[in-house]
Specification:
The complex is a heterodimer.
Chain A lengths: L2 H30 L6 H14 L10 H24 L16 H12 L9 H4 L2 H31 L9 H27 L9 E4 L5 E4 L4 H10 L20 H26 L2 H26 L20 H14 L14 H12 L10 H21 L4 E2 L2 E2 L2 H27 L1 H5 L6 H15 L14 H30 L16 H35 L5
Antiparallel strand pairs in A: 1-2, 3-4
Chain B lengths: L1 H32 L1 H4 L3 E4 L2 E5 L36 H17 L22 E2 L1 H14 L4 H13 L1 E2 L10 E3 H12 L5
Antiparallel strand pairs in B: 1-2, 3-5, 4-5
Classes of the chains: A mainly alpha, B mainly alpha.
């Protein structure tokens, strides 16, 4: 790696560590309803919204009502996104007269955006009108991210509150998340991106007459506003098909740095917020340590692997699928960040990454999107592993496991296991069927171990709500659009509902005072146990498949084997 | 029933706010503060749009510098990548073919062909080539334009003007913008028909 690459990564990490406490403490204030510096501006809006929607912000919900509200809003999001797509030819702001989106694709895209996956089986510039990009997709970018944060808040309340069913008001959590956090950040980011040359307009596409006398149709559109929130809200769905590799979406070194920083910003700050709200900062720092430790390990392997020569192709550096202004270091770093967080935007084509870099990207997704993970969903996923660790530690010493003074019973642990197993099972079953059936093999762009990687990546990305792809794989078929849509639903709600249920049952309990024999969750022993549990579960589930895909490909590449 | 109204009205409000007013507000700010950039950093010849400074276009004539290969053949609607993996036989064949073609068109025993000219970019629209790739093509361009020895210095300086360094000396990677360079060539040495 070059020294300039190291410098850029150094600045990235420093800035992330600097912004984490700032944004984290701001969000902690916002979500308990305390005054912040933006309150004079937004609290009148907030009150007006509640009045119009007949919401009493002081009225709290139990976990079931909270879950119902969440389902209702998600359902509305699905309907709106679906119907706007299949009728876009009749609607305004469609200067290219793009035809209606086919049903299966519209179904897949609607599920994808409402579950914060943002898997894309289409190219935006040739498929979607400006109206759909704005009114359907941009909205879901905001709402799905705020929903993830809301579910996290419920879990935090479940842990901290005693003998109650009241777990907060979903509408209030959602409104505050969008109004005070996502929207202001998105406006700032949009302006920063505009200063770098990201496009933002409503003009028809422009025909350029090239110097050699050819014609080139340049796509236009309101890109910057959508790119800002897709990076911040761990969404990742590009305005253009090639996502942030597109020069209009990511034109310069600085735009690339900012977009990459935005990927980890909110998931990172949420861990800090968690520590403040739990009044247990040391515990939160231990979780942070585990997160950044696993991330650093994966990112290092990816960077190292990307700088290895490729004897099979006879090249010193794999520049296929990479942009020169972004370069190898920033491509590998982004790939690490976007698969750790469940963002899924790309600035280089992951299908063309070196075998081990692609494999590590997959591994991070397959851990369940808990290394930073999605907005809210990453941390509640991580907390499931924390509960499991506490449970296993309790088994080892023969005591009833307790987390933050709350005794963990059979119900909580069953829910934890359901949430951990559901996405993994979906990946393995889905990938297994795709290999067994001709419909799966027909979609492959690469053969040999890389073909297996393409299938595994596709299912790993969908069922863990990441959304990036080994894009050679043709997922825009009716069957894949539908089955991957179902996988995304499982990845989102088979985790989120158990989390809400756990919150509900924890909130009913009375926290016991800590004693000498209480298992401490704020020291290095705990951190090491947590890392072990995460890696052992991830490894046991997926190492066989990964060994036959990326690992095998790495060794075959070095023996110059081609497929 | 109340829950349904709450969900419906809140969804409608946020659809207006984040799906309509937010992108329009950003569009408005973009028109005022970043008018040229927000429309794609277009390069114009009077009223005729020649291209965008950010987007590669196809060059195959010898008097121009050539950009990196594009899997979408420089089509931008949509653009795309090859998505060929690290052990792809097809990719190997593409790379070997490009190397042979470039060697044939460049009179050289001097150096290896720069690797960025052998492999297609991620977007299919990468506007840059490496300095090595520009130097590699320099002689061919000069010959095609029958440039004299004294013009070579000028050509070298045009190349440097079309170079984009790391921003603030730190961010991104350096490269030479092919379209800006070729346009400067035409402006300085005259456009050649055919």
């Amino acid at each position: 790696m070059t020294s300039s690459g190291m410098l850029q990564i150094g600045i990235y990490i420093s800035l992330l560590l600097l912004l984490t406490p700032l944004l984290g403490s701001y969000m902690a204030k916002v979500f308990v309803g305390a005054r912040t510096f933006l309150s004079p501006l937004f609290s009148p809006c907030e009150r007006a919204i509640y009045r119009f929607c007949l919401i009493n912000p002081a009225e709290e919900m139990n976990w079931k009502k909270y879950a119902w509200s969440l389902v209702l809003l998600t359902g509305l999001g699905f309907l709106a996104t679906f119907f706007l797509q299949i009728n876009q030819s009749l609607l305004p702001l469609n200067p290219q007269h793009l035809p209606d989106v086919p049903y299966a694709l519209a179904f897949n895209t609607a599920i994808s955006f409402m579950t914060n996956t943002n898997w894309q089986a289409y190219s935006g510039e040739s498929t979607l009108s400006y109206l759909v990009q704005m009114l359907a997709l941009t909205v879901q970018n905001f709402v799905s991210a705020a929903m993830g944060i809301a579910a996290l808040l419920v879990l935090i309340r479940g842990i901290t509150r005693n003998k109650t069913h009241e777990l907060g008001n979903f509408w209030v959590d959602l409104t505050r998340g969008i109004l005070y956090v996502l929207l202001p950040l998105s406006i700032i980011f949009s302006l920063l991106l505009l200063s770098q040359g990201v496009i933002q307009n409503l003009s028809p596409y422009i025909t350029a007459h090239t110097l050699e006398g050819l014609e080139q149709l340049l796509p236009m559109g309101p890109a910057a506003s959508q790119i800002a929130i897709k990076q911040l809200g761990t969404n990742g769905g590009g305005f253009f098909g090639v996502n942030s590799a597109h020069p209009f979406e990511n034109p310069t070194g600085i735009s690339n740095f900012l977009e990459a920083l935005a990927i980890l910003l909110i998931p990172s700050a949420l861990i800090y917020m968690f520590g403040l709200m739990l009044n247990s900062r040391r515990h939160a720092w231990m979780i942070y340590l585990v997160t950044i430790g696993i991330f650093a390990l994966c990112a290092s392997v990816m960077l190292w692997s990307e700088y290895l020569p490729n004897p099979a192709l006879g090249v010193a550096q794999m520049l296929e699928g990479k942009e020169l202004r972004i370069g190898i270091t920033n491509s590998a770093w982004w790939a690490a960040a976007t698969t750790a967080a469940s963002n899924g935007s790309v600035n280089a084509m992951h299908d063309s990454l070196s075998p081990l870099a692609g494999g590590m990207a997959m591994f991070q997704m397959l851990l369940g999107e808990i290394i930073f993970g999605g907005a809210g969903s990453g941390l509640y996923g991580m907390l499931l592993f924390v509960l499991l660790t506490v449970f296993l530690a309790g088994l080892m010493v023969g005591r009833t496991p307790e987390y933050m003074g709350k005794k963990l019973g059979a119900r909580e642990i069953k829910m934890v296991l359901l949430a951990i197993i559901a996405p993994s099972a979906t990946v393995l079953i889905g990938a297994g069927l795709s290999i067994a059936l001709p419909a799966g093999l027909n979609s492959l762009a690469n053969q040999g171990p890389h073909g297996l990687s393409e299938i595994l990546y596709t299912w790993g990305s969908a069922a863990n709500n990441n959304g990036s792809a080994f894009a050679g794989f043709n997922a825009n078929t009716d069957s894949f659009n539908i089955f991957l849509g179902v996988a995304m639903l499982i990845g989102r709600f088979a985790v989120m509902f158990p989390v809400l249920a756990i919150a509900g049952s924890l909130a009913c309990k009375q926290a016991a005072p800590t004693s000498e024999t209480t298992f401490q969750a704020d020291n290095l022993t705990f951190a090491i146990l947590l890392v072990s549990v995460i890696l052992i579960i991830g490894a046991l589930t997926f190492i066989p498949a990964l060994a036959l895909g990326p690992v095998l490909e790495h060794f075959l590449m070095n023996t110059r084997q081609l497929f | 029933m109340k829950l349904i109204w709450q969900a419906f009205s809140l969804f409608a409000l946020f659809t207006c706010l984040t799906g309509f007013f937010y992108p329009l507000a950003v569009t408005g700010l973009a028109q005022v503060f970043f008018n040229e950039k927000s429309h794609g950093s277009l390069i114009k010849d009077e009223d005729k749009v020649i291209g965008s400074a950010l987007i590669a276009q196809k060059f195959s004539r010898p008097q121009y510098f050539w950009p990196r290969p594009s899997a979408s053949d420089f089509g931008a609607n949509p653009s795309g990548a090859s998505n060929q993996g690290p052990t792809s036989r097809k990719l190997k064949a593409d790379i070997d073919k490009r190397r042979e073609e470039l060697k044939a068109k460049h009179d050289l025993n001097l150096s290896e062909v720069p690797e960025d000219l052998l492999m297609a970019s991620a977007s299919g629209l990468d506007p840059h080539i490496s300095f090595a790739a520009a130097q590699f093509q320099l002689q061919r361009v000069a010959q095609a334009r029958s440039l004299k020895q004294e013009s070579m210095l000028k050509l070298q300086s045009l190349l440097e003007q079309a170079a984009d360094d790391r921003q603030w000396g730190v961010f991104g990677e350096p490269g030479v913008n092919v379209l800006r360079l070729n346009r400067a060539l035409d402006e300085t040495f005259g456009k050649m028909e055919k």
